[in-house]
Fold:
Amino acid sequence: MKERAKYKIERFLKDSVIHILLIIVSIGCLFPLLWMVSSSLKTQQTIFSDMSIFPKNPMWGNFYLAWTKGGFGMYFLNSMFYTVTVVFGIVIIASLAAFAFSRLKFPGKNILFYMFLAAMMIPLPGSFVPLYVLMTKLHLVNTRIGYILCMINVGLSFSIYLLKIFFDKMPVELEDAARIDGCSRLGIWWNMALPLAKPAIAVIVIFNSLNVWNEYILATLIFSSKNLMPLQRGLMIFQGIHITEYSLLMAGMTITTLPIILVYLIMQRHIIKGITTGVIVG
Amino acid sequence: MDKKFCLFFMLSLFIVFLSVSLVNCGPNAQNKEQVKSIKVWHWMSDREDAFLELAEIYEKETGVKINFELYAPSDAYTQKVRAAAQTNTLPDIFGILGEKRDFASFVKSGYVYDLTEDMDRDLGSWKNKLFAKALAVNEFEQANSSGVKPGIYGVPIDVTNIQMLYNKDLLRGAGVDASRPPKTWKELIEINEKLKAKGMQGLVSGWGEIWMIDCFASNYAFNIMGKDKVLDTIRGKVPYTDPDWIRVFDLFREMRDEGMLASGIVTMVNKTAEQLFANNRAAFAFNGSWCVNVYKGMNPDLNYGVMLPPQASDKYPMTIWGGAGSSFMVNKQSKEVQLAVDFLKWITDAPQQIFLSKETQDLPSNKYSLKDIPMVLSQFANAMDNTTHPNVWGVSESPLVIEAFDKGIQSIIIGEKTPQQLGSEIQAIKEREMKKK
Structure:
């Protein structure tokens, strides 16, 4: 009895410590979001004087103002389009490339793969000027396709690396069985590799969606027409050189955050599965 | 292959088709207009609406279309301008952000049109209506260290300077005549005594951003020893252990001992300092003219005035940092240089400058537009004759010396160093740097 009670106390203490730690981490993660939503409901004056999380007179109109003043309607559609096409492009190209790197034998395979890995080490700002020069020479500056191609290029290295590790772990017997059943290489990729790689694809989708959705600097470089800009351009309206319209900026940020939270919630189950099956660790 | 596969490829084709069709919606596919137009790149998101309104007026008046293109924040803008320069795709008018040496490299590479002739035409009618101190920032003088051909290469569209602000209500509350802000250091200390007695905080400023300390100290260095001696110190002819420099450092010790400085001032960013002053929590602030816009947003009812930092000596006039706020340059490679110059002339005319100032709360670069702008802005602008800036001194201090200077003053404020100790420390670094040269 005594030992059972001791075991129960020990377990209770252990659980309590873990839960307290998790609660602290959760607060750390959630507080900025909460502060963002709270600030979006204040006025430019009360944001500096009212420190409460729940403002007495919430300014719901800020969301409407942010949407209209920031021209979010057009930017929202642009961002949706860029995110869907870029992520789609990355998933197709990366899965085909990773399948080839993993399953096919061709000369220069390793060198090519390491070149892709090396590209991962180059930070995006470091490649701005060469990208701009290339886009100018190809006459793709200020075009949607130019931006989409650049963004696909940005996301490819990491995605190929992730999927190659996943395909490497795929049993060869499965592939042999498919081949016996009359499947071509493309058929194996489509019918076997892709469905099995769902968790890895989920990680790629969420990672790249986040990347494209929040991207702005490259868009500034490629586009000169306001009509082609992504959602982040709308947020910049509220950030002046010396003054920032915090309440509208926060309302705008709340709006821009929602779709990405939605994507995360939809993909959450696959992401956890992807991570737990060793996609990230390899 | 099954139906799913076909569906998948059809979807892919659809997306490719959509991409291509949307590409054609881009401006590249637009019909080339016959209307004369010029393109302006800028980073001033808070002025976008005002610029667009002015562009509309200009088009009605002249038939020339002005396409303002905003790229913000300034980091993104800088990247864009650099990349465009490398591909020779700069617009007709643009701004260059950064140090004067960046500006010089653009000029030397042949991207910036020399405006000197246009400025001097008609007995200098364009040049004379602009604040000379603002033009100086865009000017390269004879035998400049950058090796740029002497001339004026940019047009200031607004100006800025850094002064002290006083809260009229708090001063009144402490029994001080708010219509007569302190003019001397002694008066400032006396007022601070009264504020302290009422439990009010004296001076607040973003001295966690060390350039602001540099600015404050430099003001008093000019006031105590004059410009020539300050520049001679930079040249290495006067040591930082000179009694005049010790007096400059001692002002910070005095402010600390008198309890004048807001708590945490050495780690305070300017945004926090602005917030404190806007919320009536400090009687004085040291801040730039951009604060008018900031305070208006934070507390429109704030009752304050602008004053030069009180003089610590009557030997030399008080000199403050200031000059051009934002400037525009004309692309030398542009096919529409004359149109671009004409537009810049127009935008710096008094009516446009008054409009911009009222809309954006920035100081106008045209000195004949002061009487028609808000009072607090004209108070700021009236001190433009007292301004200077390290960019126009012609000599520059070593970054290591500047760092030791600014951080040393922070140490005085928190009581870690004495003014004499700081003077010796900076001098030691200065001598080391001089030997390297």
